[in-house]
Amino acid sequence: MSFSPKLNGRTRDAAREFVLQKMPSSSDDNMETPSRRNILSSIGLIGASVLFSAMIPPTASLAAETESFAEIAARANKISKEMESAPSISEVRKTDKTMYDFSLPVEGADKSLLDVVRQQFDDAGNNAKVKAVLVVNIKQDDPVARKDIPELISLVTKYGRNGEFVVVCCPTEQGYFEPDTSTLIRLKLASEYGYGINPASVVTDKVNLLGTGAHPFWRWLEGTSRSPAGLGRVQGNFEKFLLDGRTGLPLRRYPRKYMPLDIRDDIEAVIAGRPIPPAGANWAEEWRGAAAEAERDTYRFEKGLNVFDQ
């Protein structure tokens, strides 16, 4: 079997340079005509070099390049498998309490969550009027408010007409300073957005979400409904918690910039008494974005940066 390696342009150039180096220079006054033996010897060396190069494994640089592509492919495959095996909902831990074991301050009075959402059960305690509750921690001057609050109103308008769905917004001093009083916050939300006019849209008084002074309801809510990373405490404004109005238990938690209208399928499922569907494709991606924002965003919740622990 014969073997005839092909020479590419770079190899031909190297061979030509090799011959020229071996041949005497034309500028040499004592130049001697190269003998047939010298030329054949040079050509033989070149041929042997080319044949050896064709038979050896790829160079170290090519091996490194191949290895890097292999690493990229392996990493992509790993990410794909992680995405497939990732939980479709945030981690909901078992609890012996429900939202109805807690109260929230509204207009200066401490009200049971039963009264806050206007929940009504039949005599047997089975059929509940309120089927789904969405709890949101808000900041009225946060840029996200301009997008989220109108969409929250849209949800209330569509699903809260029969009292089956309620949105509870809780302003806070934490996550950047909130200069307005609770009463003024309610007035601004009503005048600028119309939020709070519909009975299914509730605005509580300001509460602490984190630290030693955290409100018991929020401490329970964050502890039972955790982020995909297992984090309990909120990282920023407008994190959203969907709860089953029948049981009073949390079902799913949504990151700061997950749009309220993207929760429609989950709300419809809860109202209909069906299991909530798998989270949308952007759910995990928004959680990753929220984790990055938690390290640099102006409105992040960080001890020492704003009113955090009091």
Automatic annotation (TrEMBL):
Keyword Oxidoreductase: yes
GO process annotations (BP): response to oxidative stress
An example molecular function term from Gene Ontology annotations: peroxidase activity
Keyword Oxidoreductase attributed: yes
Coiled-coil parts of chain: none
Keyword terms: Oxidoreductase, Peroxidase
Segments crossing the lipid bilayer: none
Family affiliation: Belongs to the glutathione peroxidase family.
PANTHER family: GLUTATHIONE PEROXIDASE
Protein name: Glutathione peroxidase 1
Classification of source organism: Eukaryota, Sar, Stramenopiles, Ochrophyta, Bacillariophyta
